[in-house]
């Protein structure tokens, strides 16, 4: 795609200073941009880059007073950051998620319905008795099992696998390779030490505006539902076990694992590679730092946890600061023992 | 699916108390059940729920004496838990894994054979010279490479990827997105610091009744076989490296990683996010707690390990209990030093 | 596949001692080999196995002087290890990656070009405007989005998912289920505590000879590129976030996670389950041991790190050695306190 500076200014209702006929074929950060790129200046800390950038054009504020002449064309707008974000969204839609229609062969089972203005990529599979909304984008090789429900505007990337009876809200994003609704890891030990599989007949429910990362896995409930509440964001390779509940607008970073039946509150942040044990409850606004392991429920809101096993961040930082000096501590202790033993023996 | 209470009682050879014409369309826990649901009461601790449940019907013991009248219809059987489990299994089979036949387009290569009563979903792929048993269920977009062998009754979910020459036993379950037989991570360092790929020509062998979780990865052996023994259960996102051997009825929880050539014994339990270094051997019935890292072989059976690096659980719990108080320990030590130094100086 | 000892000797320009008509159908380690297998003896530490091996034939050095008669046929060559590796590579190519042609149905979008001598498996998908080199092997159900560029000789295994605009060099290997180019995990917090998705419009660039493991995930840059430099080897289930850069010939073992905008130098080794925080820089030849968590940039080359949080390996080993004895340390401290307090009180 290629636009002129003038065309972009028109879309943004901005004013051009410089050559409006310059051609733009990509968006870039002001400090990295090269010819053909459009950039923006919002935080004035970056203003020096304006005079050295390789960008063909830069979106700036209407109120900016130049300290030097700009080699790049300028598009002056009310709010450069918002204007740039609008372009980013437009670009992403144009290049990635804006496709519509059906590529054959695509499979759709009996009694499934799907709304207008959708895309179904080649080799995508929709089972029987599904109800799928409008403006839904289903990339190639995605799998949607029987009796699933999917809301308007949801995007399912290539090869995501959604087991039967999953319920997905509106405007969700499911990235490639994510698996939603696989069996909970439930096995009943037998007298001989072997295990009998406990049938898992529940499902997964994602509310609206949920995002699920690439190759993440979310198990169905044994009975009932594993639930990801509105606006929660789940990163790549996260594991969410059976009957877990993730609260509204909670963020779970990559490679974190949450064990069965645990409930995470609203507005929580779980950093990368965190582990949460089963059957716990974390209060709203709990924050867990990277690689921590939480083994107890948290009842107070707003707690920061660190460590494996995790406790409050401040104490954990202090304990870790001393951990490094354990050899020195041991030496000091030995010195004291030597000194104190002398009088005893004497 | 919908059945009447009477129909379900007949299947279970139970006796109905109450309205046998009530319609049941799902199974639920007694404390969560609502109208239309069938539940069960086995552990008498839950008996109070019997009198308040929203379930339309509850399976109870023939010997149960009611303390109050039950609003729900009752189905009286000899063993409520077993009866309910039977229904769970029936339900899972009816809704998930009971499909039979071939959905086109499905690919099967030259000289491959597959037994009776199987399902091959649309866009599933079977390579050349495969021998696949009867009652096998292969979901859409699953991949089975050349010369694979798969036993009777095995279920392969959507998009699981099985490399050439893998051998899978009977009644195994491979969940969506699992990858079995990818190359071992073997590279020979060269004088210039780069790496030369060591060809990986071994395979993976899963014995009978093995379960592999969603998006788990199991590498083939460099030569010979990576082996998962009978009845082992591997959870989501687990990594099993080349030439590893997992013992019979061993359970490996989510996001655990096992490095190359390590042998895990029978009846072991590796909790979530555990790491086991390469070329080790863990005795039968070893238990490793979550997020632990095992760097040494374990020769004694029945050991419990914790920590990274891991040592025995009891000592690890004690060391962790004191770890939290390291700042206090340091302060006590400083106090002693101050006290002990006074006499020295005086 | 089956060859005679004589045929193999001819390929390797070796000399047969023993029965050149014996049939070989597999390769195996000398200590595990059975009838029908060909093995090799390079390290003379293994020489005793030569006289007891079940192999039908063994590749040995021209200069080897037998201490006993060999039951196996011998193929004498200049360098047994190199000869055997040649056979391994030949075997892997013959059985796995040597397939050519197109299996239908396979999808290729408008204006995409692909070079000679390629394989496209059934249900593989190539988007629009892709430029793909020669000798490329694309397994079934692989997905390649629009405007991707892929170099000569690259192998993409079953079900790997490559988002639009990814650039992949020559002779790369992408294992099954890997996801390349998924959205970076970028969300702008809103005043009400919810998150707004930041569009991710960058891409991923893999240089030549890069290997990506099964079910690994590599996110695209927010703007610009996430870059994996020449010869880097990425293991299974690794997570690489947006705008990360991995240096030349760096090795990243399974289940490691690297957070956004971090730059890893050349010739580094990150062991399994390691975590690297965001916006850091690790110097060339940094080594991080398994399960460690790196929270600070490393400016000196060749540093070894361990622990979570990580510090230098030697100090970490010492601190861990004492950590186990913390209960004893506490007891010693209490003893001293008891002793020292007596005089105070007296």
From TrEMBL, chains A, B, C:
Q: Which GO terms describe its molecular function?
A: UDP-3-O-[(3R)-3-hydroxyacyl]-glucosamine N-acyltransferase activity
One matching Pfam family: Hexapep
The entry's active site is: 242
Going by the UniProt record, its keywords in alphabetical order are: Acyltransferase, Lipid A biosynthesis, Lipid biosynthesis, Lipid metabolism, Repeat, Transferase
What the record says about family reads: Belongs to the transferase hexapeptide repeat family. LpxD subfamily.
Q: What does this protein do?
A: Catalyzes the N-acylation of UDP-3-O-acylglucosamine using 3-hydroxyacyl-ACP as the acyl donor. Is involved in the biosynthesis of lipid A, a phosphorylated glycolipid that anchors the lipopolysaccharide to the outer membrane of the cell.
Q: Which protein are we looking at?
A: UDP-3-O-acylglucosamine N-acyltransferase
């Amino acid at each position: 795609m290629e636009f002129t500076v003038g065309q972009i200014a028109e879309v943004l209702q901005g004013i051009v200073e410089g050559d409006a006929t310059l051609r733009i074929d990509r968006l870039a950060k002001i400090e990295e941009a090269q010819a053909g790129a459009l950039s923006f200046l919002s935080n004035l800390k970056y203003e020096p880059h304006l005079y050295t950038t390789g960008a063909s054009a830069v979106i700036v504020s209407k109120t900016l007073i130049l300290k030097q002449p700009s080699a790049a064309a300028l598009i002056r707008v009310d709010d450069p950051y918002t204007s740039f974000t609008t372009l980013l969204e437009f670009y992403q839609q144009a290049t990635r998620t804006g496709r519509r229609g059906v590529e054959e062969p695509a499979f759709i089972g009996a009694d499934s319905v799907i709304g207008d203005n959708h895309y179904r990529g080649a080799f995508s599979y929709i089972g029987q008795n599904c109800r799928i909304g409008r403006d839904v984008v289903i990339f190639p090789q995605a799998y949607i099992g029987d009796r699933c429900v999917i809301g308007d505007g949801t995007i399912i990337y290539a090869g995501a696998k959604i087991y039967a009876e999953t319920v997905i809200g509106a405007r969700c994003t499911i990235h490639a390779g994510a698996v939603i609704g696989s069996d909970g890891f439930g096995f009943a030990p037998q007298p001989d030490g072997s295990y009998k599989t406990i049938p898992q007949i529940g499902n997964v429910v994602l509310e609206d505006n949920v995002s699920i990362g690439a190759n993440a896995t979310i198990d169905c409930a044994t009975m009932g539902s594993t639930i990801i509440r509105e606006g929660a964001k789940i990163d790549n390779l996260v594991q969410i076990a059976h009957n877990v509940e993730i609260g509204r607008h909670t963020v779970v970073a990559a490679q974190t694992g949450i064990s069965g039946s645990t409930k995470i509150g609203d507005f929580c942040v779980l950093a990368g590679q965190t582990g949460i044990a089963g059957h716990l409850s974390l209060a709203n606004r709990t924050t867990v730092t990277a690689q921590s392991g939480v083994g107890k429920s948290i009842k107070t809101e707003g707690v920061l946890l660190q460590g494996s096993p995790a406790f409050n961040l401040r104490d954990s930082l202090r304990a870790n600061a001393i951990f490094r000096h354990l050899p020195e501590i041991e030496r000091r202790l030995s010195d004291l023992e030597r000194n104190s033993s002398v009088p005893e023996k004497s």
